[in-house]
Design a protein that fits this description.
Layout (H helix, E strand, L loop, with lengths): L1 H27 L3 H29 L16 H10 L10 H27 L3 H29 L1 H9 L5
Helix pairs in contact: 1-2, 1-4, 2-3, 2-5, 4-5, 5-6
Length: 170
């Protein structure tokens, strides 16, 4: 049990650090698209933290985890950030290098979270705990892919749209 609690503490700190980083990046970002993306990622990290804290508090009391604890679920809000941005592509200037560096750093943070949650899922004994960490890992992968897409979008919006939407711009 102590190992699990330690792992959960590590997970909570990753989520706290992630939320703080995304809020800071949103505040420093030049591009409205990057600002919105970072704010949405911060909101999702906050949700992850709350769910991990629920499990941590239950285990700390040596109580049995309920089989129907509200698990995380994939968010479509990040995709909405992309959808809203694509209507304004012609007005976009190339991204500031600071936004691109913030995205690269965020991708590294998401990779660290994915590795932790994958490891916790492998070590889990109960189906519930395994499922919880698989879902967290899945969400962090979604964040990573969104950041990867954002990098492509900010470096060349027209090419990104052509690739994603399979249409040609005039």
């Amino acid at each position: 049990m102590p190992e699990k609690l330690t792992a959960l503490k590590t997970a909570m700190q990753l989520e706290i650090d992630g939320e703080a980083y995304y809020l800071k990046a949103a505040g420093k970002s030049i591009t409205p698209f990057a600002q919105k993306l970072f704010r949405q990622l911060a909101a999702e990290e906050k949700i992850h933290l709350k769910k991990i804290e629920e499990i941590y508090n239950t285990l700390q009391k040596r109580a049995k985890l309920p089989e129907k604890l509200n698990l995380v679920r994939p968010s479509s809000a990040i995709q909405d950030v992309f959808k809203k941005a694509t209507g304004k592509l012609k007005d976009k200037a190339p991204a500031e290098s600071s936004d691109l560096e913030a995205i690269k750093t965020a991708m590294g943070m998401e990779e660290k979270s994915i590795a932790l949650y994958d490891g916790l899922a492998k070590e889990a004994h109960s189906p519930f705990t395994k499922r919880f960490f698989v879902l967290l890992s899945y969400e962090e992968r979604g964040h990573y892919l969104a950041l990867f897409d954002a990098y492509d979008y900010l470096t060349d919006p027209a090419a990104w749209l052509e690739k994603k939407e399979k249409i040609m711009l005039d």
